[in-house]
Amino acid sequence: MKHEHNKPLHRYGMVIDLDKCTGCGTCVVACASENNVSVRPDESDKKRFISWMQLYMITNGKEYPYTEVCYIPRPCMHCEEDGHGNPHPPCVSVCVATATRVDINTGIVSQIPTRCIGCRYCQAACPYHARYFNWWDAYFPKGKGLERYLSPEVSVRMRGVVEKCTFCHHRYMRAKRKAEAEGRRELKEEEYITACTEACPAGAITFGDLNNPKHKVSQLIKSDRAFRLLERLNTKPKVYYLSSKEWVRRMADNYLPEELKPVKPLALRR
Amino acid sequence: MTLLSIPKEKAKDWIEGICFFILGFIGALIVGWFLFPMALYSEHTQPIDFNHAIHLENVEGDTLTEKCLYCHEFYEDGTFAGIPRIEKCEDCHDPESPMGDSLEEKKFLTKYQAQEKEIPWYHYYRQPPCVYFPHISHVKMAKIACKTCHGDHGTSELLPVYQENRISGYSRNIWGKHISGYKEHTWDRMKMDDCAECHTKKGHEEFNSCFTCHK
């Protein structure tokens, strides 16, 4: 099924430098507090918990002293295609309630909790496990004051709906509102960045418009080190990763030996 | 079998039946469209009977919209003040020297300003928490007058009675004045389809994207 689809004006995307990422988890915390992500009494239940930004750890499997570790922060990939050449992500084409769409203005894959009927089809369709289901109503421990920290800019989800990373879309609206107060229609590069980008102490995350060649992200994705997760599925994610380690890039998408383009060592590149 | 071919003695029963059906139908409509809404909405009067017309005469501004913006202002970051806090009222109203001899002003000065208490207004146009509506995009960028959506509210002398849906807790101005779905003015109903209808009419179909109004 092919939808009528115009190219979005902006294509907001993210570049995460895995060589810089220390796996501290600040992005995960920043994301959860920014987006009113509910907590469970038992957060160690990893089958039921919700984390829009998930941190994965991979190792090269070698023994000491050759062990290497890499952390992969994983937001929603905001894919552009479903893998069969259709111009919508896998989750959008399966949604029966039109609760998730590609936003025509930003290229961001939207998720409307009040529209979602909770069939979880999108969760099954997403190759990145970026979607989470609310098994219970949003819960914030009583007496801890957590409910006072809720952001009015993001709606709190009810039970029975799916939620996911929205690239902090409310921050886009906030930036747009401010620009309009100043009489501008276009946003500057630094005006709209996600909470994880802002929080990352290592500066590993870069955020910007992939359609704008002046933005840093559109220059970074041309790097030799750039790759995307499960690239062979052809979902064209708008989240790129940078790594100079071959084993990391190989693990991100089980490449065949001749498929993986080698990265020149840092010393040679300069 | 048509009505004409029915024997005379049975025709009377038929006519009675049809009359009862019509009466019952009209009765059901009266219950559904008039009595049910009366039971569905609870009515509240505002804490202060605010006179917009008097205020409009006394505030600065060249156009009607500019006059509205004197109190219902935009902040620097583009957010909309909505119903102003009493700080804004204090710009003009002084407890030492009241501006007039109206009882409502006295009520404001003694009951709220003296005790530094915010006035618990009922919000006619408060949207559900999942809805994002930037006033600045509509008023400043699209140059839509306040009157276009809010009607004569700004020039009225009396505040209308606030009606709250007992089930959902939302204002009747959002939910729709007429339960039959009939809409005369913009301010009769402000639901999702009304946003989309206006966006489409003005040639801004790109703003019918879900994330434009949802959060």
Strand content of chain B: under 5%
Number of helices of chain B: 10
Structural class label of chain A? alpha+beta
- Total strand count of chain A, please? 10
Strand arrangement within the widest β-sheet of chain A reads 8-1-10-9
**Helix coverage percent of chain B:** 40-55%
> The CATH topology of chain A, please?
Alpha-Beta Plaits
Strand order of the largest sheet of chain B: 1-2
Account of the 3D structure:
Chain A is of the alpha+beta class. Chain A has one domain: Alpha-Beta Plaits (2-Layer Sandwich). The mean pLDDT of chain A is 89. Chain B is mostly helical. Chain B has a domain of 133 residues. Helix content of chain B is 44%, strand content 4%. The longest helix of chain B is centred in the N-terminal third of the chain and has 33 residues. The interface between A and B is medium-sized, with 32 and 23 residues.
